[in-house]
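User:
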Amino acid sequence: MYGKIHPHDLADNDMKFRAPWDPSTPFEMLIDQVETAQEYAADGHQPYSPAQLISNAYNIVYQTGVYIDDCEEWDELPPHVKTWQRFKEHFLKAQAKFCKKQTAKHSGYFSWLMDQRINDQCQKIENAANSLITATTTRSDEMSTITATQAAYSVQTEQLTATIAALQKEIATIKAQQIKTKKPRERKDQGGYCWTHGYLVHPDHTSHTYKN
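Assistant: Predicted structure:
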């Protein structure tokens, strides 16, 4: 009410307006970031247009590399329905869908698989430990059995450690594959040449045949 917004304040606000968004946080945080910056810019008598609002938010989402397919779906929508409200609804649903997939993929099968493997190994170690406890109460002529049990306990501990390391590596590999990236299409030399398009064209595509 009483403060005055200076040009450098608006510049700082613009940086906040375009700041990257962490896709592991709720999409509402990006919405709040953009709308708060919009309100501040409006108070400074330099509001962003609806097109700027949507374009900026779209670029932030696209740069995360997580919602490429959803961005393509947005691109295919008719211009007259691409409102800020529609944008928020579209990507809120996109994040909910993404989270559901990741939960099913990692919290479901892979977590279950990891738990099963670790539980199996722990059960073996527990059995070996119980055998060791039982063996310590037997007569001295059973010391050879105790020694063998201790050796088995050591081997099983090493196996458990190796299993956990392998599972961690497997999970890390799965997480690394979450973000989809598009590979650029390679253009190969096909033996043709055009004054306009260069040499990466079909032999039938020449300066003579290209009429535009």
